[in-house]
Amino acid sequence: MCNRGLYEQIILDHNKNPKNFRVLPDANRQSEGYNPLCGDHYTVYLKLENDQITDISFNGVGCAISKASASVMTQLLKGKTKKEAEDLFAKFHQMVTSDPDKPVNEQELGKLYAFAGVREFPVRIKCATLAWHAMLAALDGKNTPITTE
Questions:
Q1: How far apart are CA 119 and CA 103, in angstroms?
Q2: pLDDT digits (tens, 9 = 90+) for 103-141
Q3: How many CA atoms lie less than 13 Å away from 68 in the CB half-sphere?
Q4: Are 83 and 111 in contact (CB under 8 A)?
Q5: CB distance 58 to 72 below 8 Å
Q6: Nearest to 131 by CA among 28, 47, 61
Q7: Which of 73, 65, 64, 68 lies closest to 92, judged by CA?
Q8: Is there a domain that residue 100 lies in?
Q9: Do residues 112 and 14 touch, judged by C-beta distance below 8 A?
């Protein structure tokens, strides 16, 4: 049984006290993400060494969903390989874009499960995935801003 309050608290906590919310001065990759509909605007910074994310951060402004998602993302991806980061993005993206009635594997997703409720509000999917799309662009060395439109 889902403890909705616990997961809502994760989003509130990460919005109020985001993790890795800073410019990463020695980043060797970065990408900007922008949602013109709501104004969410973040830059994701990566330090990629031998195909491994040794450090990751983000900076910018946005709603509670986008900031919390970026914060959780940075916590989960630090130390992961490029492939592991891409795989986690795929699982996250599949969850937030799936039918709201489709069961979700809470164990497999861990903290990311907090964002399962986004499925019920399709307009918020872009908020939840913005930093993730910017992270993928940074991993691929793309410097052009990512937009949700």
A1: 12
A2: 988 888 899 999 999 999 888 999 999 999 999 999 999
A3: 22
A4: no
A5: no
A6: 61
A7: 73
A8: yes
A9: no
Backbone angles phi, psi at 11, to 5 degrees: -65, -45
> Which residue range forms the structural domain that includes residue 91?
4-143
Domain assignment present for residue 148? The answer is no
Structural domain count of the chain: 1
* SS3 call for 29: strand
Structure tokens at 127: 């908020």
CATH number of the domain within which 8 lies: 3.90.1010.10
Residue 5 has pLDDT above 90, yes or no: no
Residue with tokens 């809470």: 106
**Backbone φ, ψ for residue 50 (5° rounding):** 50, 45
The sheet that has 41-49: what strands, in order across it? 52-61, 41-49, 29-34, 146-147
- The alpha-carbon radius of gyration of the chain (Å, integer) is 14
Residues 72 and 14 sit within 8 Å (Cβ to Cβ): yes
Q: Which residue, among 138, 20, 6, 141, has the nearest Cα to 78 in the 3D structure?
A: 20
